[in-house]
Structures are given as C-alpha cells and as structure tokens.
Amino acid sequence: MKNKNILTNALSINMITRGLELLHIMEIEPKDVPKDIECAIGHIDTARVVGDVLGCDLTAHRVNIEIDDESFIYVAQYRGPRLPEGTTKLPEGAEIKFYRVTTITGCDGCQGAYGCNTRGTGGCPMNKNYVG
User: Fold this and answer.
1) pLDDT score, position 20
2) Second CATH level (architecture) for the domain 5-104
3) Which of 33, 36, 98, 107 could lock 127 by a disulfide, CB 3.0 to 4.6 Å apart?
C-alpha cells in the first residue's frame, strides 16, 4: 500500500522498509482522521469498535503496510480491557487515541524539534548529504 491514508491499530518497525527513518507521531482527534481512509485493521471486532468511534463502517483487512513519504498512517491505539468476542462498542473504562504517523526525510533545519540533536548543522543522518 502506498500513497494513501491508511488506518491501523498498531505501529510496527516492520512497516519501515528503507532502513533509517525519522517518524513524526502526532496525537489527533477522531474528527481529524480522513474520510477516505483505507482500513488495515486485521481484527474484525477491533475494526468495528474503531468504526463506531469514528462514526463509519470499517471492514477489517490483514495487509502489509509500508510507511513511505507519500502515505499517512493513522493509528487507532486501543487502551483498556481485552475486547470480548463480538464487541462493537467501546467498553466502559476503555479509550481509543488516534495518531498520525509520517516520515521525515532530509534535514530541513528542524533545530532538534524531532530529537535529532544536530540543530540543523548538516550532521543529521536523515540529510541526504550526510557522511557518517
């Protein structure tokens, strides 16, 4: 999957295919998840619960995801008790937090905002001209 808005319920290092990447992970509100999202949540009940929170129907799909420069990965992170089989609503005491994940490639003088600690000096390993 490339060049899309992708919704998943987990973020894995296996999604990074080019080696060293800098990821920007930002918590967002459910209303900020795009409507043209492709669901990559693999478990039916989890997809139903996330869809209920977002106010839409989601179909579970078990697919491999690759994070690239053109895709936005949206993570629906469930926190709470184990979901009972057949659940369609968020259980009491549980929550889902949403995050947008993007890659950062090439140093653009972030001044360490993304934790690289090079302060735009050109020593950033994400910089295409970096020799390390």
Assistant:
1) 55
2) 3-Layer(aba) Sandwich (3.40)
3) 107
- Per residue, what are the HEC states of the chain? CCCCEEEECCCCHHHECCCCCEEEEEEECHHHCCCCCEECCCCHHHHHHHHHHHCCCCCCCCCCCCECCCCEEEEEEEECCCCCCCCCCCCCCCEEEEEEEEEECCCCCCCCCCCCCCCCCCCCCCCCCCCC
Provide CB contacts within 8 A for 27, sequence distance 6+. Answer: 97, 98, 99
Enumerate the domain spans of the chain.
5-104
